[in-house]
Amino acid sequence: MVKIPVLGTPLDITNYKDSSSKIIGWAKECQSRYICISNVHVLMEAHDCAAYQEVINHADLVTPDGMPLVWMMRMKGVKNQTRVYGPLLMLHVLERAEKEQIPVGFYGSDEPTLKKLVLNMHERFPSLLVNYIFSPPFRKLDNREDIGIIKAINDSKIRILFVGLGCPKQELWMAEHKEKISTVMLGVGAAFDFHAGKKPQAPQWMQTIGMEWLFRILHEPRRLARRYLYNNPRFIILALLELLGILNPDKGKA
């Protein structure tokens, strides 16, 4: 797989078909893998934390979720690069999983959201095999609890696990559990809330022009305003420095 570094984070040159095919292929082989769906928030967290950067760098697939990342990849020569949006990639993978009868699971969010998510996904994919759902507590799990979760996931025989814990928690969790659970893990962020109908998604035109962040701020100002207003300007500045050759793309440092 060819990768393009953006602020020190290698992004895969991929699309929905390519990404979902890789995921399904790994799932059929019962491989333990993890996929990071990256946007500006993920890249800036990685830029600020070397340990988190390592987690992203060791992912088996890193997709460009945000349009600013897509634009950067295009300016670096990948002219046909498109967005691989987490919630939509999730649907592509579920469609393939239903067709090929690959059992899946959902880990994250709260119980009401998970129940509604599964109901909605079964309406969309009637023969989808959902063998595992779990809403973890909003605290760090102790070792005994973690061992129990690992056993439950492996006993369920799922081959694909969607992880909806949010950045950076979900990426850290997936990296920690690689090789401990025999499944392909996808960190899908807010996709559970979107597909459960708990939160609205930005209109397609806002997503296309890279203004999804504004839509989300308007709907969740207290939770998201600081994230976007802090990270987005810094990303723009650092991205310009990288394109001008002042910032080293391999290290993400000036």
Low-confidence stretches: none
Total domain count: 1
Average of the residue pLDDT scores? 93
Strand content: 5-15%
Shape: globular
User: What is the distance, rounded to the nearest whole angstrom, between the alpha carbons of the first and last residues?
Assistant: 27 Å
The assembly state of the depicted protein chains is single chain
Rg value: 18 Å
Summarize the structure.
The protein has 254 residues and is α/β, with parallel strands linked by helices. The protein contains twelve helices and eight strands.
Report on this model:
- The protein is of the alpha/beta class.
- The protein has one domain.
- Helix content is 52%, strand content 15%.
- It has twelve helices and eight strands.
- It has helices at 16-28, 40-48, 50-57, 67-75, 86-100, 111-124, 143-156, 169-177, 191-195, 204-208, 212-219, 221-243; strands at 3-6, 9-12, 33-38, 61-64, 104-108, 130-134, 160-164, 184-187.
- The strands form two sheets. It has a six-stranded parallel β-sheet with strand order 4-3-8-7-5-6, with helices on both faces.
- α1 packs across α5.
- The longest helix is centred in the last third of the chain and has 23 residues, at 221-243.
- The model has no long low-confidence stretch (mean pLDDT 93).
